[in-house]
């Protein structure tokens, strides 16, 4: 009797069973137009800047609107510390300096990186759209960045250097979306390197850089938003995702919860202990009132 074997689907065969990407044709036309009309340097530099600025401030916009809606105040984590125009303006000014004087030169460097490693720009080399490629590579970038962020972030809290660098980011004890990249220039470079390690290891097309930029910006603005809104946040479907309440406690407490995205490093090293104790006490108080 011959052994019964079940043939495994190849990735390309697996894609045949998935629905057609509804935006594929429109995206293809836009991408081909871009690559035909702009140089690789322009795409890598100015294209990346446009993507960054549009996504950054689009992701910040809900939080900006929430402060004017009385119903949304119930979801504000530190409700006793509302946003102020002065604080937002102070944050915006440093952001503009950081985005154009620090991050823009780094974006220009991505052209050199893509040329050196022969990372393609063309539509013909575009990787498949589904989970096994783009999504998994972005998740890999997130894991690498989170690991870098945990250890370097905790190092920046060392008393000998905290006041010189990381104290700038902690100017806002109750964060709001725009504060995600409010930081000392040295911190922007140190922690920002975590973003590029994943690209260095996993990039197979320039589109991965933009996909990773988009996910990373939405994530970091979410955890700095100052609002914990149940049921609507798709990031909470990701296992071990920390979220706004988790990182908000770091700004409130100044120590612990050093991870950027996931919670496993804090769990492993016990740096989430104060967070757990704080919310355990809050739950205890709620039960007594009931």
Automatic annotation (TrEMBL):
Limits of the Fatty acid hydroxylase domain: 140-271
Transmembrane intervals: 54-73, 94-113, 195-215
Q: Name one GO molecular function term.
A: iron ion binding
Subcellular localization, per the record?
Answer: Membrane
Does Membrane appear among the keywords? Answer: yes
Pfam families referenced in this protein's UniProt entry, alphabetically: FA_hydroxylase (PF04116)
GO biological process: one example: lipid biosynthetic process
For this UniProt entry, what's an example GO CC term? membrane
This protein's UniProt keywords: Membrane, Transmembrane, Transmembrane helix
Q: Does the keyword Membrane apply?
A: yes
Q: What is its main location?
A: membrane
Protein name, per record: Fatty acid hydroxylase domain-containing protein
Question: Could you tell me which species this protein originates from?
Answer: Lymnaea stagnalis
Q: What is the lineage of its organism?
A: Eukaryota, Metazoa, Spiralia, Lophotrochozoa, Mollusca
